[in-house]
Amino acid sequence: MVRNLYTYVVREDTGLAPNPFWGICTLAVCTPNHQGSRVKCGDWIAGFLTKTRGHRFLYAMEVDEVLGLDDYYRDSRFETKKPDLRGSWKELCGDNFYSLGADGKWIQHRNRFHLDEDLKQQDTKYARVFIGRRFWYLGRSAAKLPERFAPLAGGRGTRVNHEPAMIEEFCLWVASQFSPGVHDLPNDNPDIEKG
Q: What are φ and ψ of residue 148, in 5° steps?
């Protein structure tokens, strides 16, 4: 049984947030993080594309670990999540680029997408990273959401007060309709050649 389901609209799907690469889905710098969502192990997070894109189902992850942003940066298990600005488009969109300096202030390391002080303040306000080894990321193959799940995809910010029966039904739908892992490329990554 799923504890909670956190849902939100993904405004830009670049591969940064969520970052579904290297066998682990991570969420370090996006709406659930910015709002201080109290996601715990066993909870699910699901993201949907905007209304103009039909509120399509983009991804879901079952959270099995929650780390502080600095711990995430220093943990060798997540080295591949650090952006490599000389690497492939996938390496460019790493989400592991914040650490605490000796003075206790946040350092924003070089990265592709979050480059200014305002984003740094937003990203580090609630410095937690949500990690899921069981996840479904559809990217450009984002799926039409059945009408019965429409309430999950609307509204602003992160939403968590969903009916328990709907949570269970949605999670069963995801697990039965899609195989875990990455299904397609991100929708909005500027470094991927359009083909």
A: -65, -20
